[in-house]
Amino acid sequence: MSFLKNLWGDLEVQISILTLYCSASFSEIFSYTAYRQLSQMFLAIIFFHSSEYILALAVHGKSNVNLKSLLISPSYLAAMFFSLLEYLIEIVLFPGMKEYWWISNLGLVMVIVGEIIRKAAIITAGYSFTHLIRTNREENHRLITHGIYRFIRHPAYCGFFIWSVGTQIMLCNPISMIGFAIVVWRFFAQRIPYEEYFLRQFFGSSYDEYARGVPSGVPFVK
């Protein structure tokens, strides 16, 4: 009987510790820090994708736009799910990591700046901007070299790169920050040469001259 009493006493202690730990974990998940950072994240995602779709409708018309203009793919959803999972694990196990507000605020600034650059690119290019790479030149397709394109050759890609990495800095997610930077950079490092092959076919020496004098906007991509 004494053995059972001791066993039950140890079990009660373990349950009490687990209860306190779970209570602390939930308090971290529903803290002001988590509320603010996750709210900013979800608002950034909602605004980004809804504004992409609305601008596509405004420029190209409803008949030429589908849900692909929301720019939501399975790989994108998986990346966002991983970043959310990282955030929840870290705020429970290492809550102090999320309290570096100067880092989180830097991420918020990057999200806003990236959004402005990308939307300026879409609005400036107008009909010449599409979410899919054109492989055939259309009548209204023009080489855009004014506005933000005077300073950045691919401002939409530049803006998305800044935005995507900024979302993870805003959450103080070190693993996802590095992962997003690598994956997004590799995507654009492959996409830009492919796209520019067709742009050179469309615009010839005019594009060559433009490309020589204006950076791509994505680090280490010529």
UniProtKB/TrEMBL annotation:
<keyword id="KW-1133">Transmembrane helix</keyword>
<feature type="transmembrane region" description="Helical">
    <location>
        <begin position="12"/>
        <end position="35"/>
    </location>
</feature>
<keyword id="KW-0812">Transmembrane</keyword>
<comment type="similarity">
    <text>Belongs to the class VI-like SAM-binding methyltransferase superfamily. Isoprenylcysteine carboxyl methyltransferase family.</text>
</comment>
<keyword id="KW-0489">Methyltransferase</keyword>
<dbReference type="GO" id="GO:0005789">
    <property type="term" value="C:endoplasmic reticulum membrane"/>
</dbReference>
<dbReference type="InterPro" id="IPR007269">
    <property type="entry name" value="ICMT_MeTrfase"/>
</dbReference>
<keyword id="KW-0472">Membrane</keyword>
<feature type="transmembrane region" description="Helical">
    <location>
        <begin position="41"/>
        <end position="59"/>
    </location>
</feature>
<dbReference type="InterPro" id="IPR025770">
    <property type="entry name" value="PPMT_MeTrfase"/>
</dbReference>
<dbReference type="Pfam" id="PF04140">
    <property type="entry name" value="ICMT"/>
</dbReference>
<dbReference type="GO" id="GO:0004671">
    <property type="term" value="F:protein C-terminal S-isoprenylcysteine carboxyl O-methyltransferase activity"/>
</dbReference>
<feature type="transmembrane region" description="Helical">
    <location>
        <begin position="100"/>
        <end position="117"/>
    </location>
</feature>
<keyword id="KW-0949">S-adenosyl-L-methionine</keyword>
<keyword id="KW-0808">Transferase</keyword>
<dbReference type="GO" id="GO:0032259">
    <property type="term" value="P:methylation"/>
</dbReference>
<keyword id="KW-0256">Endoplasmic reticulum</keyword>
<feature type="transmembrane region" description="Helical">
    <location>
        <begin position="160"/>
        <end position="188"/>
    </location>
</feature>
<feature type="transmembrane region" description="Helical">
    <location>
        <begin position="71"/>
        <end position="94"/>
    </location>
</feature>
<protein>
    <recommendedName>
        <fullName>Protein-S-isoprenylcysteine O-methyltransferase</fullName>
        <ecNumber>2.1.1.100</ecNumber>
    </recommendedName>
</protein>
